[in-house]
Amino acid sequence: MNSLVLLILIIAGGALLSYFGHKINKILGNITVFAVALIIPIYWFTQVDFTETVSFTVSGFHMELGYNMYGRLFSMIVMILSPLALIYAIGYMKDQKKLATFYFSFLFSILGMTGILMSRDFVSLFIFWEIMTWSSYLLVIFLGKDVQKTGIKYMVFSAIGAYAMLMAIVIIYKNTGSMMLSDYFGSFAGFTLQTKLLTGILLLLGFAVKSAVMPFHVWAPGAYSNTPMAYTSVFSGALSKMGIYGLGFVVVNLFAQANLEIVGYVLAWLGAITAVLATFSAVFQHDAKKLLAYSSIAQLGYIVTGIGIGTELSIMAGLYLAVLHAAFKGVLFMVVGAVERQAGTTDMNVVSGLVRKMPFTFFTALIAIIALAGIPPLGGFVGKWMLYESLINNGNFLMVIMIFLSSTAAFLYCFKFLFGLFLGQQELEFDHVKEASPIMIIPMLLLSVFLLVTGAYPGIVFKYIAEGMTNLGFHNVNWQMSVLTNAWGDSVNVQHVYLSVVVVFVAFLIFITWRGYKHATKISTKDISSSGEMIKPEDNMTYAMDFYKPFERVLSPILKYKINKYYEDFGKGLEALFDFMRRIYTGNGQTYAVYVIVFLAILLIFSKSIFGY
Amino acid sequence: MEGIGYKILGAVLTTILAFVVGMFYGGFSRKITARIQNRVGPPVWQNFLDVLKLLFKKTSVRYGFMHHIAPLWMISMSITTLMFVPVLNDGLFFTNLNFSGDIIFLLYIMVMGSLGMALGAGSTGNPNSAIGVSRGLTQMVGFEIPWVMALVALMIQYKTTSVTGLMEVQSQSGTWLMFSSPFAFIAALLAMPGMFRYSPFDIVGAPSELASGPISEFGGKYLSTMMTSGSIFAFVKLTLYVDIFMGGASNLIVLVLKTFTLYMYPVLWGTVSARFRTEQSVRYFWGWPTFFGFIALIYAAF
Amino acid sequence: MVITDPVYFIALPLLTAFLLPLFGKIYKPLIGIIPGLVFAFLAYISFDLYLNLVPGKPIIIQMAGWAPPWGINLVFSEFSGLIVTLITFLAFLVWVYSYNFKKVGFDNSKKYFTLLMLMVAGSIGVVLTGDIFNMFVFLEITAISSYGLTAFYKGRDSAEAAFKYLLLGSLSSTFILLAILLLYKQVGTLNMADIAVKAQSIDPKMKSIIAILFFVGLGIEAEMFPMNGWVPDAYSQAPGPVAASFAGMLAKSGIYALIRVFYTVLEVDGVFDLLLIMGLLTIIFAEFSAMRQKHLRRMLAYSSIGQMGLIMVAFSFNTKAGIFAGLFLMFNHAIIKTLLFLSSGFLTYSTKQKKIRDLDGFGKIMPFTSLMFGLGAFAIVGLPPFSGFWGKLNMLVATADSNLYFVIALILLVAVVEIVYYFKVIGRLYFRQQHKEVEVHNPTWNAILAMSILAIVIIGVGIYPDLITGYLTKAANELFDKAGYIHSVLPNLSLN
Asked: Which residues of C touch A611 (CB under 8 A)?
């Protein structure tokens, strides 16, 4: 059978099996999920034929599925992150209820994502897009927290985006007579400017909402933090990339090649603004989940900027950052989940000092944070470097400054994340915390290894990116295994960096540890230099609240304007409007009768203008 | 084989050079500050004595793995940064690995050291350390902006992103970038005291504020490593400035002269200024220095 | 030919309806069983006839052997047959559901089933007939039986709802009758095909008055704004399965009549633009009002009005694509709304005031019913892979075809609103804690069966819409082909 169809059936089947497995017995369900989590990527990596296509005609629309290199790149993200998250989920969700629905929705959203990346026509794209949306909606409201506000907000924004896409799709269909993506790209040049802008911007809107670009990001903080953390790693890591996938196509294939780069520029600016503002919001969060959520929005902002600019290097930067973001955000959300499970809360004003209790978790968090901050020698730096270079090469100096501002401010929340959860004082109430179970740690470790490796050998990712970019019209993209080059010929050899760091580190490690370490006694964090005061174990010495108060004071003029508030006001205005409209139905029968008579009278009076007589 | 041998030798020599020069500069600054404050002050080689003393002290307590590796982290980063900065214009020993790095890279790796220390400081649990770190990071957001603006302006103007590229521009045109891109220089110069954490931006480690801030819980070998790292790092920063704005140096004497001259600016200004609070420093940096940075950018773009 | 005569569609239910009490006297349970048999039989005939239809050759039955244009004839064509099949299928399912619907109570089941059968007979009659006065008669039968069904529970609210419905329904009957009278005066015939032929000769001023009267009169039945005030009350006060049949059968026959009059019988310029505007207004006011409803059934009622508005808009394009979309929407609405009303019947059974707020946490205690409701909600909003999606897609394509971009935007905006209020309910059902202890009335086996069948249809058509698209296309072609209709009914007429 066609391997693509089989892939879809496997995932759907896996979803149903997991559902029934969990309904019958928890252990059976977990085994099923584990098996499915392994089968899907194994099948994808070994059996799927990427040159195959399958087409069918439904209801008069010709639909086709097939991979191209660009879709394959994103599929790799999905196929690596999702199974790891599923395995992690087995441990994370151990004591929760309604597991059947959880795994069903999880796998269905994977189905949606996989389908999107295989779609060659708009109808399949939309179908899978919607499947992904409603299955992720079920997970957003899974824990029952803030269901109405968060869930509805998510659904409304996703719906607006998706329906904008749908509108674009039907207009495209009218103009080209076909639903195939390739036909759209081919005949784009021939559209009127109005149609070009209309369809393109509508499509962009749909994708931009999923990528949480400002000002469409308001659903993200709530959605990312209220979902079970096992799913958020996929939610933030892979699902948001679906929007990026679309943005890449639209911006590059359409606008850049049709001399409408201004749209890309606007998008890039939105990305930069998103990066800055979201980072600032992240800095002041005290809940680790919300911090990561805003951080995700900011990172997506970088990626969007990269793609919006549209040069070869910038798109490479954007796509590379996308891949890496999936990895390190995946790890970070898993870390937060582990902390939540073991310590009971993720509020950094409450938790602290878990480093000795959860060393592995801390280690993976450390690696992920370093990658997020973009510090060499880990992989995140590679992406940031390429982004800056491309912006400088292109002359967008203001954007460079903004991205840099965001990046520097990011260090603030990076440190806060590590410090707030793991370092600092160890409080008595968290003495009982134990390390997370292996089934949760192993996926995190695997992803960390990936981050470590790409620090020295980013080329392994470049390979797939370069292949993917051929679908965007960039052929023969230059890349090397360990050297990054920019348009002016300057380069950085990351391997050298890695080498240098490691050598020096090891040398000094030996130097310091030798004859020093074992003699020293390990003491608790309560034993600190405190000018003669005796600190008892129960004293809470954690510095956590208002961690960055000075910064807050500096930024207070900006922070006053919250986009969320505008939306809420708008929503309230709409509700008032609806209420007003509802009053037409007064419930009084005689009034209705009057309506009828009046309507008749109006029609009779105006019959001349309506009917012409 | 020959090349590798020379390279390693060169790396070690450069490190020692940086260490020595950095230590002496530290000593000089203490002496000069003392003189201005009408004291005698410690001898200029005092820093060496401090480091040596600390080296031989045993540490009897430790806080955990992060605490242990924080100083290591710092010094690896300092030395790595040193490797990628061209110390002399050319020459057998002192150019090291600078062919494979560039400005963006340097910007980031300079932050890495501080992150290491921040983590180490955090792992001790001392709230003073944590507060110190948070203030330090906040300040960093402050001074990085004009600093980056200056650099970006230069990069755009001369279409190169590596330090060697900028040095070539200076040697080709014969003038120092200090003069041909004055606004960038002013912005960078104004940002410099922030980078060195000298008054008025020394709130991070101020003893009267925070009991030494981040380095509160480090002693013995750790503290000596950190001091070493600090001095190397100071040298690196100075050299970087000299390379970019003052035409680099063709031999060690010229290098020492130029860096010392430059170094006097933060030292002297530091002795006569009062300390800023954190938000004041950020607001300061986002004020005039950023303004100059903007001018530099506009100047560079046209 | 004897078994599958379309006459049965009307004769059988009418007859049985009146004989039901007699059967009841003989053996009580028969009252419940006989309607089932009748509906099953009708469904069977309907499917058989429909599937064997030859395009271009609708089945014409001449009553009492009088050839048109003097006698009354029944037309079972691709279009009318489609609706009839839909109606009989739904009637059967409604019977399955209400077979032992407790609230109906055994004593009242006589009235219930009698009225139900009358309503079904009337609806089918409206669709099948080829004579305009006959259509009016059947509309009356349908109306009166539905008044009775609305007031079934004999409470104050039900009576009020029935009264409102009666009031507006009477206005509707008056206008339609007036229109027919005026028409008859002009053309001298009551046969629809014949009128179509003679339509040109009507005085234009007269024609517009007649058109307006029809528009308003039939509009009331078809739930057009601003005459649909009776709908929320009627739908929410009637018993669950009755509301389902209102949505599935009554409204369909109402809109059928409207379409038939303006597509086939009369030809009036500008009516389609008017229909478009009224349709859009219907949608807007209905959906926005639905947002504010706290009462589950009223919300569903407003949602129904909205769907009807959408169907009106589809038919207002006067293109084949539009008709196709409209038919698809009709099909979807009938099936999905029925499922929604049936499941909500059990959901609100346990709660006194039937408010949405009271439904918190029902997902746990009534899993099957909640699932059915959830499925219906997903489907009607238009999410793939359910049948509602294909309907919406075709609707949008048809709209784009007619270059009405802003209508597309409006439809999609309304879709977002739909999502909000439906998903609010789903959120309460599944992801909130139960309020207080409620008595759970689990659905009976037959209710489960009925709902499952509907669910299977929804999923089936969702995954493979081509199951029905063929029939829809044929129906669309037939409706669009006015001359064909006339020709089949009046074969002896030479067209000038």
From this structure: 207-208, 211, 268-271
| CA-based nearest residue to C104, from C204, C299, C240, C232 | C240
The answer to whether A548 contacts B138, with C-beta atoms less than 8 Å apart, is yes
Q: Which of chain A's residues have a Cβ under 8 Å away from the Cβ of B84?
A: 497
Whether A342 maps to a domain, the answer reads: no
Domain boundary among A162, A196, A214: A214
Give one word for B284, left, alpha or beta, with left for phi > 0 and alpha for psi -120 to 50: alpha
Are the CB atoms for A439 and A87 separated by under 8 Å? yes
> How many domains are there within chain A?
2
Residue A588 lies in a domain: yes
Q: Which domain holds residue A48?
A: 1-214
Contact between A155 and C175 using a beta-carbon 8 Å cutoff? no
When divided into structural domains, chain C yields a total of: 1
CB neighbours of C401 closer than 8 A, spacing ≥ 6? A174, C317, C319, C321, C322
**Distance between CA atoms of residues C283 and C288, nearest Å:** 8
* Residue pLDDT, tens place only, A270-284: 888 888 888 888 888
Is residue A127 one of the residues assigned to a domain?
A: yes
Tokens of A15: 């979803």
- Residue B118 near residue B57 (C-beta atoms within 8 A): no
pLDDT digit string, tens, across residues C408-417: 888 888 888 8
In a domain, C417, yes or no: yes
Q: Is residue C492 part of a domain?
A: no
Find, in chain C, the residue whose alpha carbon is nearest to that of A157: C416
CB contact under 8 A, A171 and C420: no
Domain boundary among A214, A239, A265: A214
Domain that holds residue C401: 270-480
Of C226, C269, C466, the CB nearest to A612: C269
Quote the ipTM score. Answer: 0.86
Minimum distance, in Å, between the CA of residue B36 and any CA atom of chain A: 31
Kindly determine whether residue B63 and residue A522, on different chains, have CB atoms separated by under 8 Å.
yes
In this prediction, residue C435 carries a pLDDT of 63
Question: Has residue A576 been placed in a domain?
Answer: no
C81 has a pLDDT exceeding 70: yes
- Total-model pTM: 0.87
Closest to A167 (Cβ–Cβ): which among C233, C409, C464? C409
